[in-house]
């Protein structure tokens, strides 16, 4: 059965790989990106199944228009993949309000606007899948990645609540957490670097150098990632969160083990903050 997709950030990396995989499977795709000309080859190969749309995920006001155009062209939307986004490196003191808000616009407000736009149609048809391309940086962070992780942490928290809200309507949410994949993410003209300060420049010099040096050498294969994502959206059930890549599995496992160890050490002290004799709250969900 043919499925209809909306995929943001579809011009390269995982977004393009997913677009190619969906089209090859006979599905229809609305590919949203800033530079639609970058998928001219796919438009030539799949003129009837592919619609390329110029779209900046930060432009939340145009989200409803994008979805309406997709429905007009192909019909009801089965899958939304929020993949568009960029990285940013800089210490907390080096990142100004504008730069921090940009990460939230890219990774929270933009995806949220598209989700709100597709939900009425998905509810009406009683099915649908929302794929949020987050990052291992959506659950763990490191010096220099605070602003990027702020956006991804926010996306994951919002999406976790969303999953419980839409499940009764037959709609699924999948949060994908890639490690390093061979995309344009680390390219010098894509990765955003805050101006180094005297205070934090030496501390983050290695981080900045590493983020740029790995461009084109990342171990993650976007095509393999696309195959995994497709297999999960087609499966009867799937976990809410899916790390992709060895580094993501290792980093997340290490962080969770450390977190549990720290919680065990401080549990008694933490629990002592409650009023004595008052029973623990029971929540509805």
Automatic annotation (TrEMBL):
<dbReference type="InterPro" id="IPR051911">
    <property type="entry name" value="SDR_oxidoreductase"/>
</dbReference>
<comment type="similarity">
    <text>Belongs to the short-chain dehydrogenases/reductases (SDR) family.</text>
</comment>
<dbReference type="InterPro" id="IPR020904">
    <property type="entry name" value="Sc_DH/Rdtase_CS"/>
</dbReference>
<dbReference type="InterPro" id="IPR036291">
    <property type="entry name" value="NAD(P)-bd_dom_sf"/>
</dbReference>
<protein>
    <submittedName>
        <fullName>NADP-dependent 3-hydroxy acid dehydrogenase YdfG</fullName>
    </submittedName>
</protein>
<dbReference type="GO" id="GO:0016491">
    <property type="term" value="F:oxidoreductase activity"/>
</dbReference>
<keyword id="KW-0560">Oxidoreductase</keyword>
<dbReference type="Pfam" id="PF00106">
    <property type="entry name" value="adh_short"/>
</dbReference>
<dbReference type="InterPro" id="IPR002347">
    <property type="entry name" value="SDR_fam"/>
</dbReference>
